[in-house]
Amino acid sequence: MHELSIATAIIERADELARADGTDAVSTVTVRVGELAGVVPDALGFAFEVARDGTALAGAQLVVEQVPAQAWCGPCAEEFPVGMPPFFWCPRCDQPSNDLRCGRELEITGIEPSRASA
Predict the structure, then answer these.
(1) Residue 2 is assigned to a ligand binding site
(2) Sheet of 26-34: strands edge to edge?
(3) Which is it for strands 61-67 and 26-34: parallel, antiparallel or unpaired?
(4) What's 80's DSSP letter?
(5) 56 with 25: CB under 8 angstroms?
(6) Which GO terms describe its molecular function (predicted)?
(7) DSSP H/E element including 86
(8) Is 93 annotated as a binding residue?
(9) Is the domain defined by 1-67+103-118 classed in CATH 2.60.40.420?
(10) Are 101 and 32 in contact (CB under 8 A)?
(11) In the chain, helix, strand, coil percent, each to 5?
């Protein structure tokens, strides 16, 4: 389960960012996870709960924003959903696309300090 190593990295990075901001406790970490990132959001949430124990994020909640995969069709100038498993053919003009616009994200987008440390 590689989600545990991802959760550990999120916790370490969120802790670094919080401390750089002068915060020693975090209540919420928000991450964006793309549909094609190879991460199972429920497994990431479980791994986060396990990995946060004994850290500055021990009481923190993980909020996962799922990002659907979208590709761009040049001939149509149209964005379309790729889906899972991914299908990179434009549904409008039936041409292949190699321009993935979103769906591979795995990023921290927000860290909320605990009220006690704010």
Answers:
(1) yes
(2) 61-67, 26-34, 106-113
(3) parallel
(4) E
(5) yes
(6) nickel cation binding; zinc ion binding
(7) none
(8) yes
(9) no
(10) no
(11) 25, 30, 45
Domains of the chain, residue spans:
1-67+103-118, 69-101
Kind plus residue range of the DSSP H or E element containing 78: strand 78-81
Query: pTM for the full model?
Result: 0.86
Q: Determine if residue 76 is labeled as part of a ligand binding site.
A: yes
Predicted confidence at residue 118, as pLDDT, reads 46
Q: How far is CA 104 from CA 35, 68, 113, in A?
A: 7, 9, 27
**Residue-wise pLDDT tens digits, 7-56:** 999 999 999 998 898 888 899 999 999 999 999 999 999 999 999 998 88
What's the confidence (pLDDT) of residue 116?
A: 60
Is 102 annotated to bind a ligand? Reply is no
Q: Is 73 annotated as a binding residue?
A: yes
The gap between the terminal CA atoms of the chain, to the nearest Å, is: 34
